[in-house]
Design a protein that fits this description.
single chain; alpha/beta; Alkaline Phosphatase, subunit A; 2,3-Bisphosphoglycerate-independent phosphoglycerate mutase, substrate-binding domain; 8-stranded mixed beta sheet; 18 strands
Length: 510
């Protein structure tokens, strides 16, 4: 039983939980959700848009957790990295960037080789093939030799697009550019400290360790034949690639999102790296990337796109008003309720407390669709019982992380799990006299099949997401809007004006 007496506001983010009329392949519809059903029947609710221009993305570009949490916290539209980079390519600013040209010139002068790494899909969540191709073309003109380290996707796009992705890339390969390695993002883009995965990616890129294929297309075909989808392709090497040649070599990293870039980049660029053994110590001494992936990279990483300052976001404004806030998620979504919600800042504001619950150590979350939701919920309730916080922000990762596995049966369990957690939270809030705003950052698990097939749909959607106000206030309704309206809505619930920088509007209607 929750014992807190202070009136608190809970912002509950059901990650990857969308709404869709079609029932087939819809884990949200097929799951047993008595608590969500009750909330939708009896409490003010509406829907939110989480994609496209309303969250700083190109028209009809699906939203994602980074963009979603940035806009939840910012309360205004922030131009996302995908269109920023696209614009720089169109204008010629990217290929004429001084930091990029300097590292290419220096590498060639010292007799080194240029290495380019990144995703080859057009998913647009962590990277995009056109960015890699653009950098590849300018590097080929300024370098003696260019080695490509390609990450196949299968998560933010359909599960087996890499064959066509690679064919398209090969058709544009300059003569001095070689495909050196290929691997699924499961290995090269881990963010959950599964260092055994990162080590395999590192060994391929740094030392040329992996199964050797003569033909990159055959490597993909063989993996698909064995039932291995793009995300899970084991690192392979090509063309007698032997790894980093020496300190003269340099790295260009094409992905534009930080959370799934940090581990592999620490392994490839950090002389003090200790998360696994690097017997010969091979690493890149010079590197350039799209963004500031980690504050620790400043001494060794040039940045092509400086961070956009987001002043007076939700966390900062709540702190400036003297209120106390609590952030909690399990490992998979912890950066989202902290770093991304705070506008891409690691800074912990005065009065802000954080809690991270470890995600389960399984190969895929279809093996444990409950993930760590119960521990997250229990810790949230404990925080409420402390009677210390005005605003508590919680993310439940299950609908998104299990949705990405493509398993409909597991996604149903994931939805049922978060439904049970919502029941516990609402019961606690009844005791507190507090309120909750229940939302999602984007859709996913409401569409687990592609079209009329039973082929797994593993990526985000363009469907609306719920916005539910759990409250005992009378004569209040909530209008539809987008994610930029969440911060102003929370501030109104807290009895605070929004800062002038927030262009979103409160969704509360009295």
């Amino acid at each position: 039983m929750c014992k807190a007496k202070k009136k608190s506001i809970v912002l509950c983010i059901l990650d990857g939980f969308g709404l869709r009329e079609k029932k087939r392949g819809n884990a949200v519809f097929l799951a047993s959700t008595p608590n969500i059903d009750r909330l939708l029947r009896n409490y003010p609710n509406s829907t939110l848009t989480t994609f496209g221009k309303e969250v700083g993305l190109p028209e009809n570009q699906m939203g994602n957790s980074e963009v979603g949490h940035m806009h939840i916290g910012a309360g205004r539209i922030i131009q996302s990295m995908l269109p920023r980079i696209d614009d720089a390519i169109s204008s010629g600013a990217l290929i004429n960037n001084d930091d990029l040209l300097e590292i290419l010139s220096d590498t060639k002068l010292r007799g080194g080789e240029t290495h380019i790494a990144g995703l080859i899909s057009d998913g647009g969540v962590h990277g995009h093939s056109r960015h890699l191709k653009s950098l590849m073309k300018v590097a080929s003109k300024k370098s003696s030799k260019v080695n490509l380290h390609l990450f196949s996707d299968g998560r933010d796009v359909e599960t087996k697009t890499s064959l066509n992705d690679l064919k398209n890339l090969i058709s544009e390969l300059p003569s001095n550019v070689t495909i050196a390695t290929l691997m699924g993002r499961y290995y090269s883009m881990d963010r959950d400290k599964r260092w055994d995965r990162t080590q395999k990616a590192y060994e391929a890129i740094a030392n040329g360790v992996g199964k050797n294929y003569g033909d990159p297309l055959k490597a993909i075909k063989d993996s698909h034949y064995k039932g291995v989808t793009d995300e899970f392709i084991e690192p392979v090497i090509f063309s007698q690639y032997n790894g980093i040649k020496g300190i003269e070599d340099s790295l260009i990293f094409c992905n534009f999102r930080a959370d799934r870039a940090r581990q592999i980049l620490h392994a490839l660029t950090d002389k003090n790296f200790k998360s696994f053994s690097r017997p010969n110590g091979k690493m890149f001494n010079k590197a350039v990337g799209m963004i500031e992936y980690d504050i620790d990279f400043k001494q060794k990483f040039n940045v092509l796109f400086e961070k956009q300052e987001i002043k007076n976001g939700l966390g900062e404004w709540v702190s400036r008003k003297g209120l106390k806030q609590f952030r909690i998620a399990e490992t998979e979504k912890y950066p989202h309720v902290t770093y991304f919600l705070n506008g891409g800042s690691e800074y912990e504001y005065e009065g802000e407390e954080r809690s991270m619950v470890p995600s389960p150590q399984v190969n895929g979350y279809e093996q444990k669709p409950q993930m760590s939701a119960e521990e997250v919920c229990n810790n949230l309730i404990s925080a409420l019982e402390r009677n210390s916080f005005d605003l508590l922000i919680v993310n439940f990762a299950n609908p998104d992380m299990v949705g990405h596995t493509g398993s409909l049966s597991a996604a149903r369990v994931a939805v049922e799990t978060v439904d049970k957690m919502l029941g516990k939270i609402c019961a606690c809030l009844d005791s507190v006299g507090g309120e909750a705003l229940i939302i999602s950052d984007h859709g996913n698990c409401e569409q687990m099949y592609i079209g009329n097939t039973e082929n797994p749909h593993t990526y985000h959607t363009l469907n609306p997401v719920p916005c539910i106000l759990y409250t005992d206030r009378e004569k209040v309704s909530i209008s539809s809007g987008s994610l930029i309206d969440i911060a102003p809505t929370i501030l109104e619930l807290l009895g605070k004006d929004k800062p002038k920088q927030m262009t979103g509007k409160s969704l509360l209607q009295w």
